[in-house]
Design a protein that fits this description.
By secondary structure, the protein is mainly beta. It has two domains: about 80 residues, Sandwich (Gamma-B Crystallin, domain 1); about 110 residues, Sandwich (Gamma-B Crystallin, domain 1), CATH 2.60.20. The protein contains one helix and 15 strands; from the N terminus they run αβββββββββββββββ. It has a six-stranded mixed β-sheet with strand order 7-6-8-12-11-15, with no helix packed on it. The structure holds calcium ion (CA) (2 copies). The site of one calcium ion (CA) has 4 residues, from loops. Keywords: Signal. Pfam families: Inhibitor_I36. InterPro entries: G_crystallin-like.
Length: about 240
């Protein structure tokens, strides 16, 4: 009897923890469905997670249109274009479908989302080795006193949610700094999506490859974006 009680207690605790982590509700379930033809026709595949090589699902250099939820980063090369060039392909959506930009059709070989693995609009940051969100990544939802493998290598970043984040040019939250709030704001029904895309460090006024630590909150006098900005409704022509 005691064993069963313990098992029920553990099951209850486990489900509580999962809920606290903010598992995405059905409405903001992050995904992108890529189609081999224009206007959502032909072979298709629904992606819900990082996919470093689309040939594994027979969709390499094939996708021309898509539907989805979230901010998805699309790359010409496998492994997220580690050898960065100057092109950028993204797909942003809260539930609608769109033909992909002409230069992004029939060429995507890897893709991943920006933002939290849990809720679509949870407070989160993604730091990238290359400009335009390419290459290796360091990501999280808490302060980081150092950036591990991405120390002095960050060349672009994305913040998601309503919190500001402060990025520092030295470890342990010291050195020069800049704070970033979301400056792109979208809604569709009850679903909200706020984020900022910093394609080059010059947009922050910081040198390339200079970031060494990250703190939650806006702790710098240099501020990009602003809290609680106006949100745009979803626009099918967007
Ligand atoms: Ca390709
Ligand atoms: Ca870099």
């Amino acid at each position: 009897m005691k064993f069963i009680e313990l098992w029920c207690f553990l099951a209850f605790i486990t489900s509580s923890i999962l809920n606290e982590k903010g598992v995405a509700g059905a409405g903001d379930f992050r995904y992108v469905t890529g189609y081999a033809g224009l206007n959502y026709t032909g072979d298709y595949y629904q992606f819900t997670d990082y996919t470093p090589d689309l040939s594994v699902v027979q969709m390499d250099n094939t996708i021309e249109s898509g539907c989805g939820i979230g901010l998805w980063l699309l790359y010409d090369a496998v492994n997220y274009d580690p050898l960065a060039d100057e092109s950028e392909c993204t797909f942003r959506s809260i539930g609608e479908c769109r033909n992909w930009d002409f230069q992004c059709r029939n060429m995507i070989s890897s893709l991943r989302y920006a933002g939290s693995p849990y809720g679509l609009n949870d407070n989160y940051y993604n730091l990238y080795e290359g400009t335009l969100f390419k290459g290796r990544e360091f990501r999280g939802n808490t302060d980081a006193a150092d950036l591990g493998d991405l120390d002095m290598a960050v060349s672009s970043l994305i913040v998601t949610g309503q919190s500001g984040w402060t990025f520092y040019t030295d470890v342990n939250f010291t050195g020069f700094s800049a704070c970033v709030y979301a400056d792109e704001h979208y809604t569709n029904g009850d679903i909200v999506h706020d984020y900022a895309r910093v394609q080059y460090m010059s947009q922050l006024g910081l040198p390339d490859n200079s970031i060494r630590s990250v703190a939650r909150g806006c702790l710098s006098e240099r501020v990009l974006g602003h809290p609680g900005g106006e949100r745009s409704g979803q626009d099918a022509s967007d």
